[in-house]
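Hi support team,

I've been running sequence recovery on a batch of backbones for a student project. Most finish fine, but this one hangs at about 90% for roughly twenty minutes before it completes. I'm not sure whether the input is malformed or the queue is just slow. I've pasted the structure tokens below so you can try to reproduce it. Let me know if you need the job ID as well.

Thanks,
M.K.
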């Protein structure tokens, strides 16, 4: 899901981003990625690593935290997709806005969205199946919404969190250009709309 979000954000800001960036999803946990960074495996230093934002709050031992803090090629996405969208849509006002302004499916009600799922996200905290529960919920929502549902959901999040998306793209552009300089590649320009708001 992180790869889909990255593709969405890059496309939102750079219509020709595929000329610069190839997003590859890895089926690895963050601790495994830290290990690859530590041993500099597979020229990992020549890639930008995008991690879910929950890694920042994970209980990292000091060695793992030091590796992540030291690496200039590690960035954090602005959204923990499944859980954060769950939290966003469980709010009645947010759901009403989503249904009215973003969803093209008139049968997608709040009852359909949360069928069989407790509304409170903290119900899943400290439970080993929390991540799977949110992923299963997201898959059901995608099925219920129909075609283009992922983009519709991301559009809704973006409409409420443009500042967070802007901040991510600024950080990405900076990290990309440091790496591009090292690898003798063309730099990536900051999107014009972000340049206007940069002090």
């Amino acid at each position: 899901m992180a790869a889909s979000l990255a593709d969405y954000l890059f496309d939102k800001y750079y219509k020709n981003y595929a000329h610069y960036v190839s997003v590859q999803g890895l089926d690895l946990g963050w601790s495994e990625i830290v290990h690859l960074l530590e041993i500099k495996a597979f020229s990992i230093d020549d890639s930008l690593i995008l991690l879910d934002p929950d890694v920042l709050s994970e209980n990292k031992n000091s060695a793992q935290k030091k590796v992540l803090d030291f690496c200039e090629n590690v960035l954090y996405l602005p959204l923990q997709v499944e859980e954060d969208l769950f939290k966003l849509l469980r709010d009645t006002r947010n759901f009403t806005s989503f249904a009215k302004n973003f969803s093209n499916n008139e049968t997608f009600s709040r009852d359909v969205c949360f069928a069989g799922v407790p509304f409170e996200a903290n119900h899943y905290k400290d439970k080993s199946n929390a991540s799977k529960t949110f992923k299963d919920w997201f898959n059901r929502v995608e099925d219920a919404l129909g075609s283009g549902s992922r983009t519709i959901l991301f559009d809704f999040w973006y409409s409420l969190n443009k500042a967070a998306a802007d901040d991510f793209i600024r950080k990405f552009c900076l990290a990309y250009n440091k790496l591009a300089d090292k690898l003798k590649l063309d730099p990536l320009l900051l999107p014009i709309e972000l340049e206007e708001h940069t002090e």
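--
Follow-up from support: It reproduced on our side and the slowdown came from queue contention, not your input. The first strand starts at residue 49 and ends at 51. No action needed from you.
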